[in-house]
Amino acid sequence: DTGVSQNPRHKITKRGQNVTFRCDPISEHNRLYWYRQTLGQGPEFLTYFQNEAQLEKSRLLSDRFSAERPKGSFSTLEIQRTEQGDSAMYLCASSPKDKNIQYFGAGTRLSVL
Amino acid sequence: SQKIEQNSEALNIQEGKTATLTCNYTNYSPAYLQWYRQDPGRGPVFLLLIRENEKEKRKERLKVTFDTTLKQSLFHITASQPADSATYLCALGAGGFKTIFGAGTRLFVKA
Q1: In this predicted model, what pLDDT tens digit does every residue of A9-21 receive, in sequence order?
Q2: Torsion of CA A77, A83, A88, A90, to 10 degrees
Q3: Quick check: A46 and A110 in contact, CB under 8 A?
Q4: Read out DSSP for B34-46?
Q5: Mean pLDDT of residues grouped by 10 in chain A (113 residues)?
Q6: A93 and which of A104, B33, B87, B104 could share a cystine (Cβ 3.0–4.6 Å)?
């Protein structure tokens, strides 16, 4: 297993455009997390899934953000009508059943111009 | 309000010395606390987990303590090496499987 994979690694977009990121977790990990990280800060919780169910979503997440995990395997995070304030590193992590350890991907760096 | 505080100033130490990083929290009652390491441009990597009923945990040169009365965890790296230079993140179990991270402390180990 090669670990958590995120694509793309970098995304540059213009303000107002929609972007979609993909996360492939470690196989058989049933939980999947999305975080946002800005320079000098720790990862900020966005949402998490247990299998295909989205169990919690941060209040900080506006209605422009949506995440899916349709078959309980890979997940996508979409940001609609991007704003400059959305520029950040978006991290995905997965966890095995009944363990609280998270395995992170390398992240997708988003730059909104 | 709920807060997790790590020293925002970088910690500079000499190779061979023990590095001690602090994590304080308020208005949480975490069932566990974790420490992660993050290198520039990479995702965090899990190091240690300590549960609320544990006082101390060790792994090789790493040691973590957890004081639920003081609401504090200390993370120690003994015999530090330049390769230990990184940002170290404290993370709390915030209910269910949700985890909340601190802002991290940068550690620089000089040869």
Answers
A1: 999 999 999 999 9
A2: 0
A3: no
A4: EEEEE-TTS--EE
A5: 90 98 94 95 94 86 90 93 96 91 96 97
A6: A104
> How confident is the model over B56-74, as a mean pLDDT?
96
Residue type at B64?
V
Distance CA B36, CA B43 (A): 10
What is the residue type of A55? L
- B21 touching A (Cβ < 8 Å): no
Give the residue from B48, B87, B99, B100 with the most A CB atoms within 10 Å of its CB, the best one to mutate.
B99
Say whether B49 and A40 touch across the interface (CB within 8 A). Answer: no
Q: Which of A108, A90, A99, A105 is nearest to A2 (CA)?
A: A105
